[in-house]
């Protein structure tokens, strides 16, 4: 059984990612020869414990969504390993993988495209229960219970996705993810398309569900201010690598990596003008041809000569990791 010992403090982490790489070939010419690789995820390691939220933050194109999709089995890893409850996912048989899908669920950014418009809400939120033969009693009862968990009334059961607001549709997506009693939910930009007030409501809902069900989240977002409202720890990703990882308070109040400082500078403060990071720091290079040395060096205000030549090693102290020659 998956994650049966998750409350044991000496057991393996719920999820352990070891030196994970996900590369995509760049094909060129009539013969479609491989001319290079997009190194979307390029040697990433972290753990997520039971009942923990890890925030994964970075600019668009940094590889965070590909990382989430690799963990879900939607992309094939090029290298490294992913252990769920101590067991290697790439080494699992097809049957084991099917069983694993129950334990890792996902909430996507755009619920309108991820909810089948031809299915009513009852069918959407109980589809997984039927697939895994977990329906006891009527589907309607299950649907009403799940909708209640996400703050929606039973009147929603026979309605259709297009009848709801963006926030309500995201609640339906969360109910669907919750239906199989998962251990881990990957939230991929799950609140990015919502108004600020609705974002706060959905984040409060996720926090309540975590407390009620001992859930773990990988919360992926480009917005550090949103991540800081939900995450226990934050991993900062730049061009396929995690450049800093630590407790949320440490990342926000005492960031080490110049890129993390750049993301914090981009967070709007009430009454102050927002600093547009692209204007100050330039645009991110392509992950097809990342710069030599430190990948951030062309944009880094603290770059030294060594930064253009040598890739910095990761250093860690008290669980705070950083990849930068300054440390
Ligand atoms: Fe900046 Fe050098 Fe640190 Fe990279 S290694 S973030 S270029 S100081």
Describe this structure in words.
This protein is an alpha/beta fold. It folds into 2 domains: 15-103 and 184-283, Rossmann fold (3-Layer(aba) Sandwich); 114-181, no CATH class. Helix content is 29%, strand content 24%. It has helices spanning 64-71, 94-100, 111-114, 121-131, 139-149, 166-178, 196-213, 224-227, 248-253, 258-265, 277-281; strands spanning 15-28, 33-48, 53-57, 79-84, 87-88, 104-107, 184-188, 216-221, 233-238, 241-247, 314-317, 320-323. Helix 4 packs across helix 5, helix 4 (121-131) packs parallel to helix 6 and helix 6 (166-178) runs parallel beside helix 7 (196-213). The chain is globular, with a radius of gyration of 21 Å. Iron/sulfur cluster (SF4) binds next to loops.
CATH topology grouping of the largest domain: Rossmann fold
The stretches of 5 or more residues where confidence is low (pLDDT under 50) are: 1-9
Tell me the β content: 15-25%
Helix content: 25-40%
Oligomer: single chain
Average pLDDT level: 88
Shape: globular
Ligand identities: iron/sulfur cluster
Element-level helix/strand string: EEEHEEHEHHHHEHEHEEHHHEE
In CATH, the homologous superfamily of the largest domain goes by the name P-loop containing nucleotide triphosphate hydrolases
CATH C-level category of the largest domain: Alpha Beta
Amino-to-carboxy terminus distance: 43 Å
